[in-house]
Amino acid sequence: MKELIIYSLAFFIAIQIQWALADRTSLKIYKNIQSDIFCFRRLNATHQIGCASHSGGNVGVLYLVDDDEEVRNITAHPPPMPFVIGMPIALFKMRNMKDLKQTGNIRGVLLFKPATSKSLKNFSPDQSCPNRNFGFYTEKMNVEYAACKKKEWNNLQGNDALGMMFEDWGMPIFIITNKTHIKSIKKCYSDFNNGTEKNWPLCSVQMSSVMLAAKDSDTCMRRNKLISNLNEVKTCDPLSDKNIVNTLFPTNKSEEIADTSFIVVSARLDAFSMFDKLAPGAHSTVTGLVTLLSIAKNMDSLRKRISEKEEAKNKNVLFIIFNGEAFDYIGSSRVVFDMQKGLFPVRILDGIKYQPSLINLTHISHFIELSQLAPPEIPASLWLHTDPVSTKSSDVSERVKELIEMFKSEAEAVGLNVSEAPSDLPLPPASFQSFLKHDKSIPGIVIADHDKEFINKYYNSIFDTNEALNVTLLTQVLTNISTAVSGTLYQLLTKEKLNETLDSTENLVSGLLECYLQNASCPLFREIADPDMTERLRVEPYPLYVSVDSGGHTKANAITIFTRYLLAYLTGEKEHDRDRKNCTGNVQNQIYHYDWMAGSEENTTGVCIKSTVMYYNSIFDTRSPNVTLLTQVVSTALDI
What we know:
By secondary structure, the protein is α+β, with helices and mostly antiparallel strands. It folds into two domains: about 30-125 and about 165-220, Glucose Oxidase, domain 1 (3-Layer(bba) Sandwich), CATH 3.50.30; about 240-620, Aminopeptidase (3-Layer(aba) Sandwich). About 25% of the residues lie in helices and about 20% in strands. The protein is built from 13 helices and 28 strands. The longest helix has 26 residues, at about 280-305.
């Protein structure tokens, strides 16, 4: 997304001739307050959602409210003039926001969220049925289970934010976190408005978050092609980023892959919230992602032993970290689409000698997805979700049962309680649905911490942070899940039980959780960063919001880059005879990739890592059904 962000909050004392003020006069009555957290507009095929201001900004007299009763009072008797509401984020609820919008005079909302504020009891702005009608269960396919007819997964009682992400609010909404700025806003209100009826002067607010995109994705993309003053005007960009792909054993296009020879292990990388720069995804995303990275490391340590087993010949594991899943399964849908077109994981070219083998749906023997994995207590309880449509086939059903029994056995050995979700329930939101949509013969399970509905109180929200989790307990749980899945993979590959304790898994899980949840300048991120960049790493965890495709070029987000480096670091080999200059690949060899990293050893200039880890675009092809778009942000500002 191209963002020209000038995000500021300005207070001003409004007088009747405010629009005729000279610059020097305006400097005396305006106060600018910098901020960078704002709600923005998004588009899909039918409509627009989110927030935006008029081209010149939205102006309104400032009103402050402190509780629900005060919100009800102001909505029952709204001010006669345009107004802007300032309120604690605890009042940011669907009912309050809809009531305020219906007054007709509201021009914007300021949400006060100081660092000391507590998370709300429940807060998920996603739908009760996330990714409704974009997976395996649609009105055109498997209508019995479409639109969560059997069960709405994200429907916890007391969630006053349900569905807020998908409303078109038609006004700017900003979050203010700085205590000094919040104090300035409140002082302006108390000095000039004071809750009493009077004319002028009044403390007013100007909020600007101009969005060029409008109506729906088709309209916006068509406007992208218009020329204005000989310049192309971009109004929106398709959501896009990079999937991350790795195989346990390297493949070569010169060698044929057998059908049902690949076990897919997947997790998602992205999350969202209503606000830019706030998509922490701790429970929603990080728990499954960290588990996958740990499993990949475990399997790498077992690779040599597995390769020596006769039963494991011609078998492999495909690790895929999908990006864009929170928006209509963008990442997994693109992978399936290209598998069907013979383009995954690379486009085969005669001019390149060494390339990975093409993988398609018939090559998949099993699918194991790591979903939300944060059970609240020890011993941890997990639920295995299966698809009721594909398991109507006796062959698929039998293979699913074998997989379940295998995992249960491994899980029991590490103290996990494992149950099967009701067989008549469809899968929860999962990337596996994208695969079943085109091949119902794939046996698979989705491993989750919930049965009939999410236990995550903050699914896809700004409050889905480490503060909502017991990280110490979580470390132990994810370690055990990683061990159980690794043992299951070993059995599937070799037909033998592992019967071995995997070393250092808990330390790795602890380190990964620190990086994704608490401190982006963590030891692991410092080890995988370029040696010249280790001292420049930020402390705040990176947001997990998916990136965009701008002008045909997909740029990976920072967290995507770090995750690919992590997977390469955990599963790759050190090339001791290569220095920084020579740590590069060969244009004739696309099987291996080389990355220069700081490494863990002291007094070294860096280390060259050779791996099979690669990016794979998660922008969706225009010939495909899922195209989700993001607006282009021109400017965001707030003046008081």
